[in-house]
Amino acid sequence: MDKAGWRLDRTQAEAWLADLLRAGRSVYAPVERNGMRAFGAVVAPGDVTFAEGKTRFSPKEHVFPRTEVLFRYQLDNAGVTLSDPPPDTAERVLFAVRPCDAAGLVRLDGVLADDPFYAARRERTVVVTLGCDEPAPECFCTAVDGAPHGTEGSDVELLPAPDGILVRPLTPKGQALTSISAAGWPAASAQDWEQAAERGRTAAAAILRQPVAKEWAARLESNFESPTWSGIGERCLGCSICAYVCPSCSCFDVQDEGGASCGERCRNWDACSFRQFTAHASGHNPRGDQPARYRQRLLHKFGYYPARGSGQWMCVGCGRCVTLCPVGIDIHEAVRVVMAAQPEKR
Amino acid sequence: MVTRPSVLPAMPAAAVPAQDWQPTIVAIVCNWCTYAGADMAGTTRLVYPASVRMLRVPCTGRMSPLFVLRAFERGADGVLLSGCHPGDCHYVHGNLYARRRFASFRALLDFMGLDARRFHVSWVSAAEGAKWAKVVTDVTAAVRAAGPLKGWGRLAADGKLPWLPAPPPPPRGTPAAGDQQAIAGHLRALCQQLLEQGKVQQVLGYRPGTLPGRMVPALIGRPEDAKLLDWSDQCHTDLAVYLAGAQRLAGKIGIVVKACDARALNGLLQEAQVRREDLTVIGVSCPGVLDASSLALKCYACDGEVAASCDYTVLPAGAQPGAVGSGARRAVAADPRDAQIEFLSRLPAAERWAFWQAQFDACIRCYACRAVCPYCYCGTCITEKSQPQWIPTTIDGKGNTAWNFIRAYHLAGRCVGCDECSRVCPAGLRLDLLNRRIALEMERRFDYRAGETMDGGPPLAAFQPDDPQEFIY
Amino acid sequence: MTDLGSLPATGSAGNGVWTSPFRPRVFRIESALDETPDVRTLRLSPVDGGPLPEWAPGQFAEWSVFGEGEAVFTIANSPTRAQFLECSYRAIGKVTYALRNLAVGQVVGFRGPYGNRFRTEEWKGKSVVFVGGGIGTVALRAAVQWVLDHRGDYGEVVILNGARTVADLCYQHEMPEWQAVPGVRVIRAVDPGSQTPEWDGEVGMIPAVFEKLALAPAGRVVVACGPPIMLKYLFLSLGKLGYAPSQVVTTLENKMKCGLGLCGRCNVGRHYVCVDGPVFTWEQLETLPNDF
What we know:
The structure holds 3 protein chains of 3 kinds.
Chain A: E1 6-8, H1 10-22, E2 26-33, E3 36-41, E4 67-76, E5 79-83, E6 92-97, H2 99-112, H3 116-123, E7 125-130, E8 156-161, E9 164-169, H4 172-178, H5 190-206, H6 216-222, H7 228-233, H8 241-245, E10 252-258, E11 262-269, H9 290-310, H10 320-324, H11 331-340
Parallel strand pairs in A: 2-6, 6-7, 7-8
Antiparallel strand pairs in A: 1-9, 2-3, 4-5, 4-11, 8-9, 10-11
Helix pairs in contact in A: 6-9
Chain B: E1 25-30, H1 34-43, E2 52-57, H2 65-73, E3 78-83, H3 94-111, E4 119-123, H4 129-146, H5 177-196, E5 202-208, E6 215-220, H6 243-250, E7 253-257, H7 259-270, E8 279-284, E9 290-291, E10 294-295, E11 312-315, E12 318-321, H8 336-346, H9 349-362, H10 368-372, H11 397-410, H12 420-424, H13 431-446
Parallel strand pairs in B: 1-2, 1-3, 3-4, 5-7, 7-8, 8-11
Antiparallel strand pairs in B: 5-6, 9-10, 11-12
Helix pairs in contact in B: 1-4, 2-11, 3-13, 8-13, 9-11, 11-13
Chain C: E1 25-34, E2 39-46, E3 60-65, E4 69-74, E5 85-90, H1 94-100, E6 107-114, E7 127-133, H2 136-149, E8 157-163, H3 175-179, E9 184-190, E10 202-203, H4 206-213, E11 220-225, H5 228-241, E12 248-251, E13 267-268, E14 271-272, H6 273-276, E15 279-281, H7 282-287
Parallel strand pairs in C: 7-8, 7-11, 8-9, 9-10, 11-12
Antiparallel strand pairs in C: 1-2, 1-6, 2-5, 3-4, 3-6, 12-15, 13-14
């Protein structure tokens, strides 16, 4: 693997993107659409923006779509015929993924690795990360073991440099991607990388959110019955913005859409914030009020999931849920509030 | 707008129907009049196109936009609704309510860009077999001219979308910080007093969030917490959304309202969702809230004076009992959304359709629009009803079109334009335009503006014998 | 509607391009028996003529009504009686109502077996006490049949089957068969006030009837299933009688969708009920948050 990497200006970066498109890759990157920065399909390399900041939605929908057909059914007198959807064979490049979002993909891998739809798509996806030099006010990746120049989940690392980007493959997949265009790229110097790393350290130091300590997970779980949850969750209105914009949320619903003769079984994004999520047909709902549902979200991210074996937080600190929550619920603040509550005896 | 891999292929460009293409038209007809009339057309052996599939319901009053949406989703090229003439309804006034509903959802369908040749309404009596034959002949011709409906829930292949004209600059600047701080101080003092005296058990107000400048809802139960309350031009949330639940859980509630929120409150009182006697309405003479760094569109036409129903009015000078005018004489301008609606309305229907299909395609069904709306208080939302599943669950154009239509439609004559739905929408959908278009229809047709009083009721819950019906065959 | 003609039809034998765990195997309804006004037992066999899957008592499956969705029920028979797959369900929601409208000969989908199982090997040599409340008895039937079919491995068998009313009692036609097995005691119970003039069983709420049986804890395992409120009071009674939480086993009913530990719906604390359960001991339940 080429450790030295390269330093590209805008034109060279766009030429690389053009090469990728010509090579038949489906390239997704931050693009400005209708006044919003989206992680969308790149049609022309000039569309891509390298400006600081996150896309509105995480790139997870390109490996875990909002809606997906699981199979189709056709009923007839003899019975039913089931057919699989055509396999997704697109070779995807997720370009300029922020480190938090790449970490989110790794969290999704942990949950959905055995899902053949996800696995097939993920295997054909190469992740090119772009480090951040300027965290936004909502960012708290460093509080959950991330970093503005983090490389978790990255196949190719890009870092901002004056008038361009530094490029360095980190995995064989990444190596294959850069070798499509790398002949003729100017090499980056060790000084380029050191200066970039210094900018990364400065960026990390600018995030002032208190780190979430490993031992907090058990304490959060043990505070399940604490009365603090109502104070935190009572203003939650039960939409699912937080789950849907989250790089690591992966809950889904399975529904049949169609008629009595033919149709599809689909899966759609779903969220634990909805009342319907745990409502039984009998009427019983174990999470009957919104504070109970918000508690599930927080404990799953910071308690249950880490305890299940990975040891990793299920939150990557991107802060989208904080910005986009209609009522400004801040999950990091909520963690600290619950931590501060007296532990409850069972 | 975020593009995403779509399971369904994009709409093929300019499909020309085969020579022998027959339009599929679903006719939903009332049992007593039109169904009998159609029967008569048959028994008198009148010849007319066999393009119509009939669904019989007891009354036009039973006809729901859900039926219309589902017909189009399932492949209908046109839909015809038909029933008894006004005055002849078997159930006395089912069709009189229906007439207002038809007008509203026709306006919404048209605004969404559905070709007007695809949706028709008629009054056909049991004796009017000949009229039925003529109606079906004319409707078939109209739908045939419109061609097969291929775009329902699918993005246009060429991706070209109209750009809305930018709104004009706001009529006034941002409010003075000193005024806002003064208001905050008076709110804190007033709410602390109300809690201490037991006049309210809980106050719904605002407090700073964790991000710079952000204001978030605060549910304050203890007098000593009243000091957390604050006020600024970022106090967006329509707190009326918490009201019914708060009254149930806590009892007497004090609620801080801006002018738009006060209108929502009036509507909730009209719909008997909250008890006025257990409410202390604390109106703030609001100079406007910001959207990014500019005055929010909804505030252009609003002078910020709170409704006459306030128990207290909070001004920079102090908190006064009753509803007190601020004397601020704020500069107002025409509602900028009206110009954008006018622009869309003048586009050819196909372009308007492409605009809205692109909008709906971006929807992620987070239901934040529903969550923040004070009027979305249904115990079980239509999307949660599974027997049958009226609104498709898939997060794609088809399901999203149905959801966004029905959400807007359910607010007909009720939405006060607080715009929280479009502000919170993470996909940036212009839900405010859908809401406002229907609100304009209510104004034009029924001379009704939502939220002006706490008496009376929404126009779709009423009728007049002489309601306009120029669109009905 | 998407054009199905362009897709390869892979048939019900599941010989598609890839194996999707979401795709059901197609089963035909061979017979239907109404246990109660709202509980029905189906017998099913695979349309592809292949063997039944291998399952253990306590495991569940996702049953499809194509076009309506899937619902989760336990596999109601023991693998020792593997002529058919059986399930018993109550019509209560969209899928189960649609299932009820299917006739013998029509097809359903089957995905499974999923979940953990009753650890019947740990019951060997012990007295097994089954306590089923209402539709909870359905979840125990596979284990009951297993124990009866391995009679020599177990001590005294007590089966307490209770319901709100006489008509709601499940498996009434099978209980004489169970009672006929040596060393098996079957007690039927209905709620106070529901007994009919001919009723010759017990009258009382399940926890009360259980206490009346005065079964000493030593050497017993209690296998219970029923509505949450019944279990709550039953556990209290069991505690009073001196049963240790590790002696008591139950199976949880939980809203599920994928059955594979992926969709997140059945996540309770650190567990996914579809993977780590639905069979849990009372001792394990105490470690779960009160979230089910």
